Amino acid sequence: MSVEVTWWGHATVTVEDSGVRVLTDPLFVRRLAHLRRRRGALPPAEAARADVVLVSHLHADHLHPASLARLAPGTRLVVPRGATAAVPGLRRVAAARALRVTELRAGEECTAGAVTVRAVSAAHDGRRLPYGPRRVPALGYVVRGAARTYFAGDTGLFEEMAAEVGPCEVALLPVGGWGPFLGHGHLDARRAAQAAARLAPRCAVPVHYGTYWPIGLDAVRPHEFHAPGQEFERQLARLAPEVTVHRLGHGESVRPKVV
Fold it and tell me: Which of 75, 122, 169, 198 matches a 20 to 30 Å C-alpha distance to 152?
């Protein structure tokens, strides 16, 4: 059974596996605070169609209540444990849309149809900035169906990553960000290539770059907006040439070879 991956921009990806549509970190707006979407059309209505939605952490460009409000009533929503208590907007949307919320810690898992979702650690600040000190650990997820697909969310490179994720065929890895400088707890193209070399998937899809950028900063380090996907591909060809890179455009899909 084939697996299909569609990148909608930023960290928003649809993975279809074993007849189950898995959507990650939905963000369906043209503007978010000081960020605007500079590349790619807004995802179409079909992008919000999902059987299960994975939210990696509480930052507003990953947990976006207005985007979650586009989900069909009754959609399964998987979030880090403590997210519902920490984000009032999440509680309101979940109640209004009758979303079936499951909270996980790293190491815990749940099933959605024919796939199993396992939460894994992420090296990233889990607070709902800038609203307060309540910290909810950021997560990545491994979706296991016909293939094992690792969605890293937002994370830095950490020693236990490969051991905790385990074998995987597809890795969805952040390679950039939404501003001229990446803070602590992120992967740039070089570190993402190092992560892919350690994980040794059959293929990798770079995400979390080339979509949003701060208003008024178009001329500040523009290569950090445009270049991360291509630089990831170049770095990974050097470190692990056996890993196939699928560098997608916004709205593009690929059916990677997983066997």
Answer: 75
- Torsions phi, psi of 174, nearest 5? -70, 135
- Ramachandran quadrant class, 208 (left: phi over 0; alpha: psi -120 to 50; beta: rest): left
Cβ(184)–Cβ(124) under 8 Å?
Answer: no
Tokens at 15, concatenated: 């993975």
SS3 46: helix
The model's pLDDT over 59-77, given as tens digits with 9 standing for 90+, comes to 999 999 999 999 999 999 9
For residue 142, the SS3 value is strand
DSSP 185: S
For residue range 162-202, what is the model confidence (pLDDT) as tens digits? Answer: 999 999 999 999 999 999 888 788 999 999 999 999 999 99
Alpha helices in the chain (DSSP H): 65-68, 83-86, 88-96, 161-165, 189-199, 223-226, 228-239
Cβ within 8 Å of residue 128, ≥6 positions away: 58, 59, 60, 63, 86, 87, 134, 136
pTM for this entry: 0.96
Q: Which residue has the tokens 């984000």?
A: 87
Alpha carbon dihedral 47, 203, 232, 12, in 10-degree steps, equals: 10
Q: Supply 230's token pair.
A: 């291509």
